[in-house]
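pinging the channel bc i need a second pair of eyes. not urgent but kinda urgent?? the chain im working w is below, pasted from the shared doc
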Amino acid sequence: GISHGSAGARSIATMATQRGYQMGRWLAGRLMKELGLVSCQQPTHRYKRGGHEHVAIPNYLERQFAVTEPNQVWCG
């Protein structure tokens, strides 16, 4: 096809409208579902933005896990 399988309901509705058919994205989506058509676009992967300390839980140890005596540090 024209889109190589990447067209979703909005794209199909736009293509149909340009060809003279009256079609909204909801109808296009319903027809896609009935015909078993699925857009093959992968969603972009969103990475977590690390490096920010949690506001409610301060980092008291600062990754210094070596403890010389019992009952100095507790975690859970």
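so The chain has a mean pLDDT of 82. and The two ends are 56 Å apart (CA to CA). — does that match what u expected or am i reading it wrong
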